[in-house]
Amino acid sequence: MVVRGVMSPRDMEMPARTFLNWYPREDYRAYAFNTRPVSRIPCQKPFVYYLSAARYDATRRSTVTEYTRHHETRPLCRWRMADPSAFVDRIVVYKKPDPGSEKELLQGVVIAGGEQQG
Hints:
Elements: H1 9-13, E1 49-57, E2 62-69, E3 90-95, H2 99-106, E4 109-110, E5 116-117
Antiparallel strand pairs: 1-2, 2-3, 4-5
């Protein structure tokens, strides 16, 4: 996540609340996991990046994913801090595959014929 300002590592580990509860009142205990509220400060509105490409790099033996910034009008911010969108237009992530995680993901996956795989 790219935001303007300073955020503690503990806050970064907790997912941002990107959805609304279907109950009429604001009771965030209804979620099955902890989320942090979206900041009401316009200068701390997160910048949105969308997945633009994904491929496997055989020379590095890793998955490469690229994310490009979604250009949108943003509220005027008078902070003296630099605007991250001026520096970060694209994010590239290199991830080596974890052989153990694939086996865990496939356990319990139901294929189209109704048989359970794994």
